[in-house]
Every structure is written in C-alpha cells, then in structure tokens.
Amino acid sequence: MIWTAVLLTAAGCFGFKMAGWTVPSSVLERPLLRRGATLLPAALLSALVMTQVFGEGRALVLDARLVSLVVGALCFWRRLPFLVALVAAAAAAALVRALA
Amino acid sequence: MSLGVAVGLYGTSFGAAASAAGFSVLQACATSLLVFTGASQFALVGVLGAGGSVAAGVASSVLLGGRNGLYAVLLAEVVPARGARRVAAAQITIDESTAVATTSPEGLEPVGFWWTGLTVYVMWNLSTLVGAASASAIDPQAVGLDGAVGAAFLGLLWPRLREAWPVALGGAVLALVAIPLTPAGVPVLVAGLAVLPALVRR
User: Fold this and answer.
1) Complex prediction ipTM
2) Theoretical Cys-Cys bridge with B65: which of A13, A42, B51, B167, CB 3.0 to 4.6 Å?
C-alpha cells in the first residue's frame, strides 16, 4: 500500500513538473490557471498546518504542538532562518512535554 | 550554505516522520529520490500515518506538487534544457531552485537553478536516509518532531500569506471543520475549495 502511494505520488508530481517544462509559456496568459496554481498551495499548506497541529485522528486537540506553532510563527515573523525556526519549534514542544 | 543545513534538518525530519508513519527506510528514501518535493512528501506521510487512504494521500500530495508545474513554466523561459537534461531539470524543479533561479542576475539563472537544485537533491536524500535510519532510536514526540513539522508547513505558507491570506484563512477554517467529519487526508482536499471564491470573483 505504501509503495503504491509512493509510486503514484512520484508519477503525479513528476508529471506536473515535466508538463510545466513542456507546455508553451503562453499558458501563463490564462489568468484563471495562473491564479489557481498560485493560490492553491496557500489553501493546502494552511490546511496541513491545521491537521498537523490540531488533528488527532478525527478529534481536535490542543497540546504542545500549539506551542511549537506559536514559536515558529514568532521566528518567521522576526525573519529568522528556516532552520532556526524548526529547531526552536521542536525544542518548544519537547520542553513543554518534559515539564508536563 | 545555510540553505544546505536547513534542507538537511528538514530532510532528517522527513525521514523520521516517514518512519513514524510506518515507512521502511527504503520506502522513505525512495520517496525522497522519486517524489522530491518536500511539502508533498510530508503531506503523503502525514495522511498515511494518520490512517488516511492511498487515494487521499496521493491526491493531496500531488495537488500540492502542482505548483512545481507553474515554476517549470517560468524556469523554461530562462534555463535552456532539452532531452535528458530536461528530465533532470524537471525533477529538481522545486521551491528552492526556483527561488534562487528567478532572483539570479540576468544570464546566471541556469547556474543558480542547477547548483541549488542539485545541492538540495543531494542534501535532501542523504538527510532522509539519516532521519529514517535513526528514527527507531528517537521518540518523535519527545524531541518535538510533530511540532516542528507543523511549523515547517507554516514556514512554507508564510511568504504566501501577504498575497493569499484570505485563501489561507478559508483553507484553515475548512480543514478545522472537516477534521471531525471526514477521514484523514480529506480535510486537506476540502480546504482546496477555498480558492474557488478568488477564482470566481474576477
């Protein structure tokens, strides 16, 4: 099952990449397509933040992951490097759990 | 160089997250070698790890990877690549290589693209191996890995918020509503509907 998912995902992701290299650049003149491709990642990434931070199966929970998210947001707001933000976010959750 | 270190840490996180989701070391490494687009890979292991179906995992992952197609259209204008080189260029078409290429001085776009893409490819795959192989030795929750993955998604979202915050907000609300109502992975797909108002309005 995992192999099937990996190979299908690889085919789909490579298909999009290769299609972009192959189609004429005039497709970008279609504003609907361009806007959709620009905006869709924002919706999906935002949803992934929610499921990763608040999801526990089908339940919504508040736990140490929320502290990670807040710390991460502060880091990105202060324009700290991605690496620093990830380490700080991980450390925040680890600390909260160690203290709890 | 800091890019290499950041990618290394992110890749190690991916290896560990894949392992926590039930991927073998070989499956984690194959994912990084073949899929090679970070957010999609995290989405895939996130959905499968939470018990989601193959269809939901593949769909959210591939939709998220769709932006690379847009990058490729932009890159094809400034980076010449035909035949086998085009296949290689396609595989390393990701956020990082596009960002560097499109901000390189005129004429240096191909150098920025290939150098960044290949460096990230090597670092990403090596660090995936390290993360997956060492994952059994660490407790993902004790080191805060799950929190870091959430922050990583936020980091990828952050530069898009200025232009797309209404869509991001809509996606977040749809996902929160859908989490209790739908199987794992489906909330992410439902959130994709948040783009529709922005498309219809004009």
Assistant:
1) 0.91
2) A13
